[in-house]
Design goal:
alpha+beta
């Protein structure tokens, strides 16, 4: 099978695993692809600037030939699947994203043959279009150079049409999401528990919109993935786990529904929003920004200190979150690294050590407030920081969080850097960090905070972490100039 998909931006470097999985037609394809993305399933793999290829062992005698042209992207797999891309194509791209497919000087013969056929078809189509335009131009007195410009304009029109087609699919999916959200509120939140257990019938439909053994929102999550809104799909998958996850689950579930409703309404008015908020909405929905596009944006030069590292192994793709703090700019930045089958897609970023300091340019992704960034030019090697960063206080943290929420209502985490004394309750069941002014903030993950108390010794210490609506997740405490992970 062969298909072109114009919904993923071309990147000059390897894609992230999230970008690959966003191509999948459904969750079944994602699960199958993860299972096949292991070296034992593949042979004769390789990659060049434009192509990725490999042979995948199947149920028959001959392996499936899988080829991806990255500039489309376009896919070719000899399997009989009618899904585009199929699980073999997704698995190959996941392996490539994870660094398990080596770069080669030349493609294998079958990849060369397929790419040659595509180029020949493209050349014939271009020649026909050029001949037609030249003929029309000669009849109307248009120069050949103008005819070439007309071809380029046609390509731009085609690209615009593909983007418009995706926008229509996303809009249709979000309209369906809003109707689903209204159903959840109309039927009642208790029905989501029935959906998790297999669901009862309400109005002729399964109460939770689910299927036996599935989370109540999984079906709608798959619909959002099909509508090319992977960010929304991820939120829905998380919401499927909320029912019965604690005594306050109805409030958290309803809050999640409200945020999704707000996101869908914001997408309806995307062209009326300020540029920063519009970029945030697009990112939350799941539109991607190419790496080279981010690196082409403005650079923030500084000496950046690694203030926190947090692994999230339970994510659909294991993720490492790395927080940076600028010495001069006092700006924060979030770097993300993704692991596929134990291999980091960007090892230089993923393996930045806690407490390290780098002299580099950072480029922020679009959005307001800017958080996620990429490292651009590095002017010196990574070294150990000579001193702890200058901390703030609880009042400043909460004021910054309020401004962040005002700009991005879907924020769930905010960088925190403050001074305080950790205080545990008598039974050790709850913890707070009390700043020099006497203002306290709750600390989460109390099982890991005895190290924080030991480093503090009852004295103020500098703490970095992530602020959330449920409290502060402490990631790092400084013992003098040494950063200690929590």
């Amino acid at each position: 099978m062969s298909v072109e998909a114009g919904n993923v931006r071309v990147m000059s470097t390897r894609w992230s695993a999230d970008a690959v999985l966003a191509l999948a037609a459904d969750e079944t394809s994602r699960r199958a692809a993860r299972g096949l993305a292991r070296p034992a399933s593949w042979s004769d793999t390789g990659a060049t600037t434009d192509l990725v290829w490999g042979l995948c062992a199947g149920s028959g005698k001959n392996p499936y030939q899988v080829i991806v042209e990255l500039s489309g992207p376009a896919y070719k797999c000899s399997c009989p699947s009618r899904k585009f891309p199929c699980k073999h194509t997704l698995a190959l791209l996941l392996s490539w994203a994870g660094g398990e497919v080596a770069d080669r000087a030349e493609p294998s013969d079958y990849a060369v043959a397929w790419a040659g056929e595509r180029q020949a078809r493209s050349a014939r189509a271009t020649a026909r279009a050029g001949s037609r335009i030249a003929t029309q131009g000669a009849a109307s007195g248009v120069a050949p150079s103008e005819a070439g410009a007309a071809i380029e304009r046609k390509r731009e029109v085609a690209t615009t049409a593909r983007r418009a087609q995706r926008a229509e699919r996303v809009a249709a999916g979000l309209a369906e999401l809003q109707e689903w959200l209204r159903d959840q509120v109309r039927v009642g939140l208790a029905a989501s528990v029935g959906g998790m257990a297999g669901g009862g019938q309400v109005g002729g439909r399964t109460a939770g919109g689910g299927k036996p053994g599935a989370g109540h929102a999984d079906v709608m999550a798959a619909r959002m993935a099909d509508a090319q809104a992977p960010g929304v799909a991820g939120v829905l998958r998380d919401l499927s786990l909320v029912p019965l996850s604690g005594t306050d689950w109805p409030g958290r579930l309803l809050a999640g529904y409200a945020q999704l409703h707000l996101l869908a309404r914001a997408h309806e008015r995307l062209h009326e929003l300020p540029p920063g908020l519009a970029a945030t909405v697009r990112t939350r929905v799941g539109y991607t920004t190419a790496r080279q596009e981010v690196l082409a944006g403005p650079a923030v030069a500084d000496r950046w200190l690694v203030t926190g590292v947090r692994d999230i192994p339970e994510a659909s793709v294991p993720t490492r979150r790395i927080w940076l703090h600028g010495r001069s700019s006092r700006r924060s930045a979030l770097l993300l690294a993704f692991a596929v089958n134990g291999a980091w897609s960007d090892p230089d970023t993923a393996l930045l050590p806690l407490g390290a300091e780098i002299d580099a340019d950072l480029h922020y992704y679009p959005g307001d407030p800017p958080q996620r960034a990429l490292i651009g030019q590095r002017r010196a090697g990574t070294g150990r920081a000579g001193r702890a960063p200058e901390p703030g206080d609880a009042e400043g943290l909460l004021a910054d969080w309020a401004r962040g929420i005002a700009a991005d209502p879907w924020l769930t985490t905010w960088p925190a850097l403050l001074s305080g004394i950790p205080v545990a309750s008598a039974d050790g069941g709850s913890w707070h960090l009390v700043d020099p002014r006497g203002t306290s903030v709750p600390l989460r993950h109390s099982e890991s905070l005895w190290t924080l108390l030991a480093v503090s010794g009852g004295n103020p210490v500098t703490v970095a972490g992530e602020w959330t609506p449920d409290g502060l997740i402490a990631l790092t405490v400084w013992h003098g100039s040494q950063a200690v992970g929590l």
